[in-house]
Amino acid sequence: MWADVAAVDQLTPGRGVAALVGGRQVAVFLVDGGEVLAVDNYDPFSGAHVLSRGIVGDRAGAVKVASPVYKQSFDLRTGQCLDDEAVRIATYPVRIRAGRVEVAVP
């Protein structure tokens, strides 16, 4: 099942938005090249739902978001924490249909 999140043209490249998908907070990002990626909005280091407000960038070829709280970075494609290999956040499949972003319901 898929949840409608927003129109693609409502997203700002390099910035995230939070959405409630299947009862979970999900952070959705439009990155360079028009790709849309979705991860948990929950930062396991601070315990806050803030990743959608993080800083999007690149580290060694990995598209990542840095938490706005303690600055740990997470790979937006795999969810792997780039600063602590023991930590990973969930990622969610995303599709674009008729100009709308849809995220798979967990």
Describe the fold and architecture.
The mean pLDDT is 97. By secondary structure, the chain is mainly beta. The protein has no helices and twelve strands. Helices cover 0% and strands 49% of the residues.
How much helix, percentage-wise, in residues?
under 10%
Beta fraction of the residues?
over 45%
Mean pLDDT: 97
Supply the number of helical segments. Answer: 0
Through-space gap between termini: 8 Å
Tell me the major beta sheet.
4 strands, antiparallel
What is the global morphology? globular
Structural class: mainly beta
Count of folded domains: 1
- Taken in chain order, the helices and strands follow as EEEEEEEEEEEE
In terms of quaternary structure, the protein is single chain
The strand line-up of the biggest sheet is 2-3-4-10
Tally of strands: 12
The CATH architecture: 3-layer Sandwich
Q: Segments where pLDDT lies below 50 for 5+ residues? A: none
Fill in the CATH topology.
Rieske Iron-sulfur Protein
CATH superfamily: Rieske [2Fe-2S] iron-sulphur domain
Report the C-alpha radius of gyration, rounded: 13 Å
Q: Write down the CATH class.
A: Mainly Beta
